[in-house]
Model the fold of this input.
Amino acid sequence: MSRFAGKVALITGAANGQGAEEARRFAAEGASVVVTDIDEANGQKVVDTITEAGGKAAWCRHDAGSEADWQAAIALARDRFGGLNILVNNAGIVPRTTIEETSLGAWEKAMAINLTGPMLGMKLAAPLMRDSGGGAIVNVSSAAGLMAHYDAAYTASKWGLRGLSKTASVEFAPWGIRVNSIHPGQIEGTALFSSASPALAQSLRASIPMERAGTPTECADLVLFLSSDESSFITGAEIAIDGGYSAGSTTFMRQQMKKSLGS
Done:
């Protein structure tokens, strides 16, 4: 397939997980990809994998909360590949603390990466996307951006990104740029699952009506769809990809987790 032949995509947080999967998939379908992250070793591996398979990719070390880094990443897309059509704001951090436990520094860091970063990306990328003929922006929020979660700063930042995406969809529509947010739930391969005990991992899965976690490939499928002409009349949408997690009640989730943990 070559849905993205002649297109240029910039993906943040693309050194690992679903970001890396998205980068590989975009390249396999014809896009030139700017891979950005703070993890240089794994980011370069993603670029090498793409180029060895015959695709086009470039690496950029990029702190999503830095305006200067954003300017450099977007300049790379323009100078190396001639423009920009697709922006995927995938980078994020998860400080798992309650309101009482959250320090001001931790709060500000979460907002810088999870909310200010996508704002800067859209602000700086949109003019180049307009001049490149329009395109699509996908902001990776979270199921925590649809419901209450205990991790205060993360939840607030993801709700903020959900709202910002809607504002951007209206502002950039005249430029031919669509903007949508996706809201992943529990995804295999994330730090949460990797560090969890078998009992906790099982309890997490039990809180999902479909009784399994999602995969990076499933997230990439949705991102590519929203970036393609197949979704040409979809903008301002918020799409949960969570196996029914956000649709289920908190009571249901607690009951299922208690059953799984035997308490």
